[in-house]
Specification:
Largest sheet of chain A: 7 strands, mixed
Strand content of chain B: 15-25%
Helix content of chain A: 25-40%
Number of strands of chain B: 12
Largest sheet of chain B: 8 strands, mixed
Strand order of the largest sheet of chain A: 1-11-10-4-9-8-7
Order of helices and strands of chain A: EEEEHEEHEHHHEHEHEEHH
Strand content of chain A: 15-25%
Distance between the termini of chain A: 27 Å
Oligomer: heterodimer
Number of helices of chain B: 11
Number of strands of chain A: 11
Structural class of chain B: alpha/beta
Shape of chain B: globular
Structural class of chain A: alpha/beta
Order of helices and strands of chain B: EEEHEEHEHHHHHEHEHEEHHEE
Strand order of the largest sheet of chain B: 6-7-8-3-9-10-12-11
Helix content of chain B: 25-40%
Largest interface: A-B, 49 and 56 residues
């Protein structure tokens, strides 16, 4: 990997073999008019260690969701290697590998089946991924709801009667039901109100602390990432341009692109002047529309 | 209160909303989507209109623009545009929303920018055509002149190579470019009031920063009044001069000076919202959350609608209607126990409260 600024590792997890290790991932999509294929992910490398929360931040079209989909096996790679728990994930994944990582999607309205009760949604997953049967399934469902701080009464509800925050908690409980070691959260709080968003971010922080869950947290929002992540990788046009421990990235961004991203965050207490012209330097490049 | 050169209470009022109450359906027991909402936006002022989903903030904009869904009715209240009432009254005295005057004003006096430019723009017409139409609607000028004006507008909103872009269809543009096209069409008639319904929520932060800069630019060029609806206090802090916080259809806090509101929120809800907003300059270990959820219009309690989620709640909060207290016309707080040294008992909050946020 070239052009990537790496400055040190998080001390707490140093020396540990990574739980998830992505090396030189390349994903291309065929272009419509038979031209050059579009390179969505361009030799990206990324790792998540046990108990670590890693942020992957970029704008729309940067390739961050493609990486997330590749990690959980929803997107074939052109080249590169993804290894998980020390094993290379090539070809068909084993059940253990599939239960080992689970994904939470952006839209809690679209990612739950509207016809299924929450009990149905969770118990289907528990039966699929664990040997539990009968009364034990029900007990496990209640435990899962407890983990995501939802009342047990919600088991009989359907998604339609629930708020966005509650649905996202159910989606997290569903992901946890497989007993994963890694959670891939793709813009999991982007669609929620701020007060609700804060609750989900706190919940993810608690799950890391209490159950030792590792999280790959994909977001376009650097301010949310800052409250949650140990390390942050910044992705631009399919390349990881910078990766640093969280505090360092904010204090001392190395790349111009990272600085531009940080500079664009709305600030509660320090308003930018009227200096920035309407067509700033980071306007979408010609041809990338 | 004039801060950083922005107009204060002496500038001309462009939009005055007084005691606006919207109901879902008609009749005495109809649930109130909006309950006695009042605020003013003056020339050159950008007012942030903040609330969570379902608080009624978008409905307020729709009421002003006269595009309420058919099931929502204006029960009472007045909407004045430059002192002129724009809510027409039916012969039986009940207000209906669209007056002939309002239809005239749309685009030329008042225009609206929506959250989703991909939905609001016509997908089968070029963007040039849509901007030209907006220009011609105002002046009835020739197509050639209108085209020249459209190019100027596209330049104003930062669309590069406007000559080439005139022939593009919306699907050929990025989200940020589409939003610029919508802003160009919205300002084509030199409106004095621009209603913004979360126009940057769907955009990347870098694009959002450009669009916010563009709004500042447009407001200064046209001396327009902006009513800016969002759930993001960070965006409000970047763009706006004044703030109205809406919760469950009621105004919780209204402040003429946005900076003061952010530094010293009086209402517990405003404070909780501020504390749950991630702040890049103040790293918190944990974000503040607001437990529970807002009451729907159907089950709003008699007392304060925020009482069940409030950490300062006392018995009297639930006993009956809560009065608005404040300092002159600058501050309105809908709370019996606001932050600050004063109390609601004398109807005034001490403007220099003991507790300052951060």
């Amino acid at each position: 990997m070239t052009g990537v600024a790496r400055t040190g590792d998080t001390p707490a997890v140093e020396g540990q073999a990574p739980l998830l290790d992505c090396r030189d991932l390349v994903v291309t999509f065929p272009s419509k008019r038979g031209g050059e294929p579009f390179t969505a992910v361009d030799h990206a490398s990324l790792s998540v260690r046990s108990g670590e929360v890693v942020g992957l931040v970029g704008e729309s079209g940067s390739g961050k969701s493609t990486i997330a989909r590749a990690v959980v096996g929803l997107q074939p790679l052109d080249s590169g290697v993804i290894s998980f728990m020390g094993e290379d994930l090539t070809g068909r994944r084993t059940i253990a590998q599939r239960s080992g990582m689970q994904m939470v999607f952006q839209d809690p309205y679209g990612s739950l089946d509207p016809r299924m009760s929450i009990r149905g949604t969770l118990s289907e997953m528990v039966r699929r991924h664990t040997p539990l049967r009968g009364q034990e399934v029900e007990r496990r469902c209640l435990e899962l709801l407890d983990l995501v701080a939802l009342p047990s009464a919600i088991l009989d509800s359907r998604p339609a009667g629930m708020s966005g925050g509650q649905r996202q908690r159910v989606a997290i409980a569903r992901a946890l039901s497989a007993g994963p070691r890694l959670l891939v959260a793709d813009e999991a709080v982007a669609a929620l109100d701020v007060s609700v968003q804060a609750g989900i971010v706190n919940l993810l922080a608690d799950l890391r602390r209490d159950v030792g869950l590792s999280i790959l947290f994909i977001s376009h929002d650097l301010s949310i990432v800052r409250t949650l992540c140990d390390r942050v990788a910044v992705i631009h046009l399919g390349r990881i341009v910078e990766e640093q421990p969280c505090a360092d990235l904010y204090a001392n961004p190395q790349q111009e692109y990272t600085k531009a991203l940080l500079g664009a965050i709305p600030r509660l207490h320090a308003r930018r002047g009227n200096a920035s012209p309407p067509a700033a330097a980071w306007a979408a490049p010609a041809g990338a529309q | 209160m004039v801060t950083d050169g922005r107009p204060g209470t002496d500038a001309a009022a462009i939009l005055e909303v007084e005691g606006l109450t919207l109901t879902l359906g008609r009749g005495a027991g109809a649930p109130r989507i909006l309950d006695d909402v009042s605020f003013t936006v003056r020339a050159g002022e950008a007012r942030g209109f903040v609330g969570e989903s379902g608080s009624g903030k978008s409905m307020t904009l729709r009421a002003v623009m006269g595009i309420l869904p058919p099931t929502v009715h204006v029960e009472s209240g007045r909407i004045l545009f430059r002192g002129e009432e724009i809510v027409a009254r039916a012969p039986d005295g009940s207000p209906s929303t669209v007056s002939a005057r309002l239809q005239q004003l749309r685009g030329t006096g008042i225009s609206m920018i929506f959250q989703e430019p991909s939905v609001a723009l016509n997908p089968v017409t070029t963007v040039g055509e849509q901007i030209v139409d907006a220009v011609r609607r105002r002046d009835g000028m020739s197509r050639r002149t209108a085209r020249r004006r459209a190019l100027e507008l596209m330049d104003l909103v930062g669309i590069r190579n406007p000559g080439e872009r005139l022939g593009s269809y919306p699907f050929e543009l990025s989200g940020g470019m589409r939003q610029r096209v919508m802003i160009a069409a919205a300002v084509a008639g030199n409106p004095q009031l621009i209603l913004c319904d979360e126009p940057t929520t769907a955009l990347d932060v870098t694009v959002q920063a450009q669009i916010l800069a563009l709004f500042r630019h447009v407001r200064d060029e046209l001396d327009a009044a902006l009513l800016y609806v969002t759930h993001d206090l960070g965006v409000v802090a970047e763009l706006c001069d004044s703030l109205t916080v809406l919760y469950s259809g009621k105004v919780m806090e209204s402040r003429q000076d946005l900076r003061a509101a952010i530094d010293q929120p009086f209402h517990p809800y405003t404070r909780a919202l501020l504390q749950s907003t991630p702040d890049i300059d103040h790293l918190e270990q944990r974000l503040r959350t607001i437990p529970g959820s807002a009451p729907t219009p159907q089950n709003r309690p008699a007392g304060c609608p925020f009482a069940d989620r409030c950490d300062r709640v006392q018995d009297d909060c639930r006993q009956g209607p809560v009065p608005d207290v404040g300092v002159g016309s600058e501050v309105v707080v809908h709370c019996l126990h606001p932050f600050g040294r004063g109390s609601a008992a004398n109807g005034v909050i001490d403007p220099s409260p003991a507790e300052v946020l951060r």
